Amino acid sequence: MNVTRINEFQAAEGKAEELFEFLKSLLPYITSSEGCESCEVLRNKDAQESFVVIEKWNSVESHQKSIESFPKEDMQAAMSLFGAPPKGGYYYA
After folding, report:
1. Strand partners, 67
2. CA-CA distance, 42 to 51, in Å (whole number)?
3. Whole-number Cα distances in Å, 73 to 13, 39, 77
4. Burial level of 79, CB count in 10 A (0-12/13-18/19+)?
5. CA angle, 13 as apex, 90 and 63 as ends, to 5°?
6. Dihedral angle at the C-alpha atoms of 74, 79, 85, 89, nearest 10 degrees?
7. Half-sphere exposure of 43 (CA within 13 A, CB side)
8. DSSP sequence for the chain
9. Domains of the chain and any CATH numbers
10. Fewer Cβ close by (within 10 Å): the C or N end of the chain?
11. Among 36, 51, 44, which Cα is nearest to 81's?
12. CA separation for the pair 45, 24 (Å, rounded)
């Protein structure tokens, strides 16, 4: 069953551009993962420090498998860019 993953991110003060660039840098990794159908990074028009990443997957399992193989050191290095813990959920049509 196809699934959409919607992730919400809030940048730390003064880190919006860096977070936006970091999130966009993940696109090649995500879209090349097995089971990924598409992915986009969007910035809130009215709150420039807020972002969503919308991912379309062939299954929840494919998404979870892609996360397991993501380099943990890259995510740790980006932690200072987050103003709040990321939020996300799976959605079905």
Report:
1. none
2. 6
3. 22, 22, 6
4. exposed
5. 20
6. -10
7. 14
8. --EEEEEEEEBPTT-HHHHHHHHHHTHHHHHTSTTEEEEEEEE-SS-TTEEEEEEEES-HHHHHHHHHTS-HHHHHHHGGGBSS--EEEEE--
9. 3-91 (3.30.70.100)
10. C
11. 51
12. 17
Q: What is the pLDDT averaged over residues 44-68?
A: 96
Confidence band of 12 (pLDDT split at 50, 70, 90): very high
The b/e string for 13-50 (b: 16+ C-beta within 10 A; e otherwise) is eebbeebbebbeebeeebeebebbeebebebeeeeebb
